[in-house]
Design brief:
By secondary structure, the protein is of the alpha/beta class. The protein has a single domain, classed as UDP-N-acetylmuramoyl-L-alanine:D-glutamate ligase (3-Layer(aba) Sandwich), CATH 3.40.1190. A nine-stranded mixed β-sheet has the order 5-4-1-8-9-10-11-12-13, with helices on both faces. α7 crosses α8, α9 packs antiparallel against α10 and α10 packs across α11. The longest helix has 17 residues. It is globular. The chain starts with a strand and ends in a 7-residue tail after the last helix. The chain binds adenosine-5'-diphosphate and 2-keto 3 deoxy 6 phospho gluconate (ELE). 2-keto 3 deoxy 6 phospho gluconate binds next to α1 and α9. One of its GO terms (molecular function) is 2-dehydro-3-deoxygluconokinase activity. Its EC number is 2.7.1.45. It comes from Stenotrophomonas rhizophila.
Length: 338
């Protein structure tokens, strides 16, 4: 069991029922989420000691979010409570030719209005093996960009490994015209492991990757990332091919500075239930494989299977066990397990 600290915004997802348009009927389903918390919930189900560091408002919405994390075995004692509002996002799930859509309603949330000085990383990182961060937090505003950097630098300074998920959100950066490449470069420089593909590396280092094969683009991007960021050891990413809104193929790669190149065979996912959080479930699967000392091929197969399972589960979280994921990597069986 490892000890993992996840820093980021807790969100509530408000979603239209089934495949309805947003507010087509006067109902919304509510789920707790947020990129880094999603990773934390997965890792707690995989047996790790996880604590989430964040800020939520002192109101019933903040209580709900914390209750959901606790229900999934995540330690919430390091979550600050403050004035302000809960970050929300509204999800309309697509169907047929209509794509899914996310509308954020998170400006001036209690988390977005916190700052670097609110988090005592000496205490928060004591005994931690990994700190997990994502590109969502620095995209919120200048203070959160600094707070995320402070967390990453504190972990580096204390010998805590840093896992950083690119999670590029152009609409958040555009709200304040933040210098995404400059800030993300500083975060990548602190990371041991990044979840990023050639598009993320294109944003961070500039330039485009035009190789015909997507995996060759990832290889080229990884080579540039290892050259630019001496601390970086691993880059992992999925390759998604949407055949339609509900039917995607998902493959995955794990590339190491030492020349390791592991690929998981592509999985066809037909009749996707909910893809939001699939990337976070993948990230948690990769982290789990690394923390358990799996071989690179097994790590990437485990991560991909975790991400695929998430596509079958409504809500942001992927509350599945190691055995659930192993059942998929090992047997390729889809009948009832009895
Ligand atoms: N517009 C974009 N520019 C650069 N990178 C992007 C953009 N959109 C997504 N990405 C990156 O591509 C990767 C895959 O994203 P996505 O397709 O949303 O997959 P998933 O849901 O599996 O995480 C992520 O690392 C994300 O940061
Ligand atoms: O956008 C944000 O700020 C969020 O945190 C909301 C989402 O829950 C995660 O981002 C899911 O991300 P994927 O796993 O890539 O689908």
């Amino acid at each position: 069991m490892s000890r993992v600290v996840c820093f980021g915004e807790l969100l509530l997802r408000m979603s239209a029922p089934g495949r309805e348009l947003l507010l087509q009927s006067a109902q919304l389903a509510v789920h707790a989420g947020g990129a880094e918390a999603n990773v934390g919930v997965s890792l707690a189900h995989l047996g790790h000691a996880v604590s989430v560091v964040s800020t939520v408002p002192c109101n019933p919405l903040g209580d709900f979010a914390l209750g959901e994390l606790r229900r999934h075995g995540v330690d919430t004692t390091a979550v600050r409570r403050s004035d302000g509002r809960m970050g929300l996002y509204f999800l309309t799930t697509g169907a047929v030719q209509r794509a899914s859509e996310v509308v954020y309603d998170r400006a001036d949330s209690a988390f977005a209005n916190s700052s670097a000085g609110d988090y005592d990383w000496d205490a928060l990182l004591a005994g931690a093996d990994w700190l997990h961060l994502s590109g969502v937090s620095p995209a919120l505003n200048p203070a959160m960009a600094q707070a995320t950097l402070a967390a990453a630098r504190a972990a580096c300074a204390r010998g805590v490994k840093v896992s950083f998920d690119g999670n590029f959100r152009p609409s958040l950066w555009a709200r304040w015209q933040g210098d995404a490449p400059g800030i993300l470069r500083e975060l990548f420089a602190c990371a041991d492991l990044v979840f990023a593909d050639y598009r993320d590396i294109g944003v961070v280092l500039g330039g485009e990757f035009e190789q015909a094969d997507v995996r060759e683009r990832v290889d080229a991007a990884a080579a540039q990332a290892f050259a630019a960021f001496p601390r970086l050891q691993w880059m992992a990413c999925t390759q998604r091919t949407p055949h339609s809104v509900d039917n995607h193929a998902l493959g995955a790669m794990l590339i190491g500075r030492d020349g390791t190149r592991a690929m998981a065979p592509t999985r066809e996912m037909l009749g996707i239930v909910d893809r939001i959080g699939g990337g976070d479930a993948f990230a948690a699967g990769i982290l789990h494989g690394m923390m358990r000392g799996f071989a690179p091929d097994a790590i990437v197969r485990f991560g991909l299977a975790a991400g695929c399972l998430k596509h079958s589960i409504p809500g942001d979280f992927n509350p599945v066990s190691e055995a659930d994921i192993m059942a998929l990597t090992g047997e390729e069986r889809f009948d009832v397990r009895r």
